[in-house]
Amino acid sequence: MKYTEGLDLSEAVKALLKFREERDWEQFHTPKNLSMSVAIEAAELMEHFQWKNDDEIGTYLKTEAVEKVKEEIADISAYLLMLSHDLGINLNQAILEKIKKNERKYPLEKSRGRHNKYDDL
After folding, report:
1. d(CA 82, CA 55)
2. H-only helix segments in 61-113
3. pLDDT over 70, % of the chain
4. Which of 75, 100, 101, 106 fits a disulfide with 41 by CB distance 3.0 to 4.6 angstroms?
């Protein structure tokens, strides 16, 4: 079952900021460090899928490994939420603006069903 509704992360952001403040970790959460942490956690997520074909991934995700994948996704999201908060970026608005930009770069009539980059359509 895919999760598609109720994605309001305001409670998560508040909890993250409280957790960070209680531990006096704001001093370490610079944009450089947070962005690096996103990349590091993304690499840890990729490790779960490295060298597996689609069938192997499907089987893998039906095991307890899905919990580890979920934790990596949560780590990436947490660092990204803190970074966007600290930089004053409304993440929801930024995503919607990027979708509009991509709609212009990848017009439906040229890109539907194709994986080509926008400059090769």
Report:
1. 35
2. 65-86, 91-105, 108-111
3. 95
4. 75
